Structure formats: C-alpha cells, structure tokens
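Is this the right way to post structure tokens for a design question? Let me know if I should format differently. Anyway, here goes:
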C-alpha cells in the first residue's frame, strides 16, 4: 500500500473510531416516583450491561431534588452537606436560603447510602452513583436508577442522568486505526534518510 493510501486509510479509521466512543442516553429520575422506599414507579430502567463493562453515569450538580420539608434539597450526591438556594433553582427559595443539609445515611434493601442520593442497581446489587460515576458494571443485567430515601410520600423534584457504555465495535475500530497509524510511523522511520 502506498504511503498516501496508508495515511488516508489510517485517518479514516481513526476518525470513525473517535466519532462514537460512547452513546449517552438520558433518563429522568423522580424523587417521588423512583424512590427506593416503594416509589410508585420503582427504579428507572436504563441500559443492559455486562459485569466488568465500562459504565459512566453523569448528572449535573445543578439538578436538585427533595426529600421533604426544608432543608431537604440535594443534588444526586445526596444530603451530605449544606446547600443554599441560588434564586433560580428548582427549590423556588430566595437566593441564600439554606435548602439542604447533612441527613446522614439510610439503609434500604441491605445497602447504605446518603439520603437523597442517586443509587444504581444491577441484578439486586446496589452502587452509589452520585453526580458522577465512572467505573465498571458491578453485575450483569439492567441498570436501574433510584432516589435513595426511607419515605417517598413527601419527595419532589427530578434529575436527569446520562448513562453510557462503550460500543465494542468502536473499540475494535479504534485499535485498527491506532495499528494503522503505528505501521505508518514505523514505515516512515525505516525509510527516513539517516542524518
């Protein structure tokens, strides 16, 4: 293969590989409907995953939900510290109002996590996700998302979480692209005149 064809092929393969490393899908999780404490809708079913597969779940820190009367607003990390209203957030409270504070942890179904946090479940096994989780799937099956609480009746608000897993075909294309670029560099080094 000529040098120009090799460069063109490697460039196309690398571009294809980088164009779709992962597909993110957004899911709305309601503090009321999707509460682990018998919320009427149960957990939000997301993607099917395989144990050990890379998994990423991201929720904006500005998305907040509520476990009841003030101060029980939090983001997906849960009620782990003081949170103050911005004046334009979902709480509707004036800027500077204390809308969230530390309420500690709660244990549901044998798993302990902060009140008001985003927790994922795969195959009956739970994992704290918070606002940002990057790791591997801890079991095989459908990933469900829950609001972690002990009583859903006075909850309100919702967050939007993006869930993504890598596409196996994309990783294969990426490896081929890197291999092509590596071959080109080796060939170029072998044919370069000595200085």
């Amino acid at each position: 293969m000529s040098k120009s064809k090799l460069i063109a092929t490697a460039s196309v393969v690398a571009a294809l590989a980088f164009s779709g490393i992962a597909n993110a899908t957004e899911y709305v999780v309601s503090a009321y409907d999707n509460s682990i404490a018998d919320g009427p809708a149960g957990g939000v079913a997301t993607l099917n995953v395989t144990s050990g597969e890379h998994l990423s779940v991201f929720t904006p820190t500005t998305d907040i939900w509520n476990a009841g009367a003030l101060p029980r607003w939090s983001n997906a990390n849960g009620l782990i510290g003081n949170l103050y209203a911005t004046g334009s957030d979902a709480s509707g409270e004036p800027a500077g109002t204390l809308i969230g504070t530390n309420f500690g942890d709660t244990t549901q179904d044998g798993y302990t996590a902060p009140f008001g946090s985003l927790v994922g479940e795969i195959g009956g096994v739970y994992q704290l996700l918070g606002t940002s989780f990057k790791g591997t799937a801890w079991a095989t099956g459908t990933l469900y998302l829950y609001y972690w609480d002990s009583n859903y009746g006075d909850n309100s608000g919702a967050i939007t979480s993006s869930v993504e897993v890598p596409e196996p075909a994309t990783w294969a294309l990426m490896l081929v692209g890197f291999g092509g670029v590596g071959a080109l560099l080796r060939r170029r080094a072998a044919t370069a005149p000595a200085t």
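Format looks fine. Someone answered above. Worth noting: Residues 6-21 have pLDDT under 50 and may be disordered. The two ends are 26 Å apart (CA to CA).
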